Amino acid sequence: MAQRRAILSRATPIVALALMAPLGLSACGSNSGSSGADTLRVMDYYADQPDKGIYAKVLDACGQQSGVKIKREAVAGPSLIPKVLQQASSRTLPDVLMLDNPDLQQIAASGALAPLGDFGLKADGYAKGVVDASTYQGKLYGLQPVTNTLGLFYNKDMLDKAGVKPPTTWAELKSAAKTLTSGKRYGIAFAAPATYEGTWQFLSFMWSNGGDEKDIATPRTAQALQLWVDLVKDGSASKSVVSWAQADADDQFAAGNAAMMINGPWQFPILDKKTSLHYGVVQIPVPKAGGTPVVPLGGETWTVPQTGNAQRQAKAAKVVACLNSDKNQLSLARQRQTVPTKTALMDRFAAEQPRMKAFTDQVRNARARTGELGKDWPKAATKIYTAIQTALTQGATPAKALKQAQDG
Which residues face 203 on adjacent strands? Predict the structure, then answer.
């Protein structure tokens, strides 16, 4: 998926999955749409440059290493899951399938994916959150070479002029944002739309304060939402955050209309085009000094669908393993402003790419969005962004907004 929306999850249609579930593991068997035995079909959503070209090269190289040719189909992000459901129904799934990591649980639950343990693949040495995202009912179904998450971007010139240091706690964030707000410039920009993107942006604050998606109507989550309400209420953040996507927040920051923003490393190429902009990135501020930010993991995982052809599946597994080699993890991370998922590679990567250090350090303790609720995650995500909207647009207290969303 294009970097500006690389972390977003989509709600896989539950009804469609329910209809698909009876297919089971064997019903996806004929793979009638496959090419010859020496060619593997691969499907992903890297349809835009530069990702499309980056993955074309690495997939071709992995195919060659595995003794096969790659026939690749890159589809637009929103089209991937509907296409997967249709192909599962018609028994024409590809040999290798990339999924946005929050989608894996639901697709695995349908029986459309083969456990990677069947091919001797393991996730030893990967960050725990990454493994959780690709595991369903105790079995590993995907391997994810790189990941991403959120950080706090800040305009160096604006902070220096105001005598403000990059904030590390919520109190410092509120103080800094208020000090930096002047005229048409807001202290901070973030995205709080009524979509999974709003939930994604909020999770770092909710989780870092001990909030939990199993029950969002708790004081911990209410405190996190109160922080956002306070930032908007005192004018440190625009009221328009309720309709901004992350790309909009980035546009505001790049234009000098916000001194800080919550966003991800996929924005680097866009920000770097503005040569007059001098910016830095630090970890997401935490409730109290000394705390550890708990952030959500983004990125995509690679799977082997149940095609019913054991020989082709074994070759597909080799391609997945190749994509996750140390060499390819580092190469993809460098080229795509992402973080390698093997913990042994992280220090080396952060040393090579200093501006990725904040993201890399956070990934070690990051959580998978589906880690607790699995295929039921979309329901919780919807409740969270609904509560955010209610608190920011209707004036409801965070506690009331969260209780209403939880019970709704």
Answer: none
